[in-house]
Write a structure and sequence with these properties.
Strand order of the largest sheet: 1-28-27-26
Structural class: mainly beta
CATH topology: Methylamine Dehydrogenase, Chain H
Order of helices and strands: EEEEEHEEEEEEEEEEEEEEEEEEEEHEEE
Shape: globular
Number of helices: 2
Largest sheet: 4 strands, antiparallel
CATH superfamily: YVTN repeat-like/Quinoprotein amine dehydrogenase
Strand content: over 45%
Distance between the termini: 6 Å
């Protein structure tokens, strides 16, 4: 039914595509500690300094994977006059006007967050910490109310309540934020934040794996996600906004981390190659849908030979920004022949 085509990104040797606008051709890319931004026809480039003993490791992709030196997050602020960067536990702000980079805060538990998990709104920018959290410490939610220049912890999930936050998302149909959490049974919930002060948070779900979501797909009457569970088969879950009940949809061959809605309201999602009984394939697959309910597999990429535990799972991540199904960017890690590379994708009818 659908045909998928990809080609290697031509901008520069980049590992992650953080942002792309199909119309304006704005783009944000990174390779390790090097960052390239093109916004409003202006180009910016900067390097974040690393401790001296990391310098050798940056020269080789396999070592960047092992020591997680490739992992970072970059988002544009609401006015698009600056960018927020999370890298190696620090929060940075890059000002487009002054062309300078400053450390503005430091994370509590981990180095950065999952892709596309930062909510940028006119009333504030929000993200929650993600990481191993072996001792189940409290999990902070960070907020900036001056477009990324200063940050504070606005809320803490109590210790032993969740392992970490998968993402915070702005609802395009309502003036709410939604938070997804994991990972074990008793830690997987959907939280609604009715106001940006993080008071009166509403919890949904029973903590089981069907409520274990990373990214969310929003429709007027429902919120949709693919389960992020390596423990059991990951199914599509459809959350009815009126009844607060879940309806199970199709199944996927592995945990769903990332998804994206295109400008025509069609969508794409991926499955990851992890460790567990719920992982049915050694391939990371791309699925496409016109209505967000019925999904078709359009391509798949095989996991590479390197250890999942040491060198990361097989994952595909989509870039943020307004994009079409015929022109979008994605990044890959832990997958044969495409690890550590950025590609452009095009979906069309056969």
């Amino acid at each position: 039914m659908f045909q998928f085509a990809l080609k290697k990104n031509d901008y520069l040797e980049s590992e992650i595509a953080h942002y792309y606008d199909s119309d304006k051709k704005d783009v944000i890319l990174s390779q390790c500690n090097k960052f390239y931004l093109k916004v409003n026809n202006k180009e910016y480039f900067f390097i974040i300094n690393l401790k001296w003993y990391y310098i050798f490791f940056t020269k080789f992709r396999i070592l960047r994977r092992l020591f997680r030196l490739d992992k970072s997050n970059v988002v544009l602020n609401s006015k698009k006059n600056g960018a927020i960067i999370l890298y190696q536990k620090y929060i940075y702000f890059y000002c487009f006007i002054k062309k300078n980079l400053n450390i503005v805060s430091k994370l509590i538990n981990h180095r950065n967050v999952l892709h596309n998990s930062i909510a940028v709104t006119k009333n504030g920018i929000f993200f929650g910490e993600y990481g191993p959290n072996r001792y189940k410490k409290k999990v902070p939610v960070w907020a900036s109310f001056n477009d990324g220049r200063n940050w504070k912890i606005i809320y803490n999930f109590p210790s032993h309540s969740i392992k970490h936050i998968h993402g915070i998302y702005n609802d395009p149909f309502q003036n709410n934020l939604w938070i997804t959490t994991g990972d074990s049974n008793g830690e997987c919930y959907l939280f609604k934040v009715p106001n940006k002060k993080f008071s009166n948070i509403i919890q949904y779900g029973d903590g089981t794996q069907k409520w274990r979501a990373v990214s969310l797909l929003f429709k007027k009457n429902c919120i949709i996600w693919g389960m992020d569970s390596p423990l059991q088969t990951s199914n599509l879950q459809i959350f009815n906004r009126k009844t607060n009940k879940l309806k199970k949809g199709c199944s996927f061959p592995g945990p769903v981390w990332y998804s994206k809605i295109f400008s025509d309201q069609s969508a794409i999602l991926q499955t990851s190659v992890e460790i567990g009984n719920g992982v049915k394939s050694n391939y990371s697959s791309l699925f496409y849908s016109k209505d967000l309910i019925n999904w078709s597999e359009i391509y798949k990429f095989k996991k590479d030979v390197f250890s999942k535990k040491l060198f990361k799972f097989g994952v595909i991540a989509f870039s943020e920004g307004i994009q079409t199904s015929k022109d979008f960017l994605f990044s890959a890690e832990g997958l044969k022949k495409i690890d550590g590379k950025v590609f452009s994708g095009k979906i069309s009818l056969k």
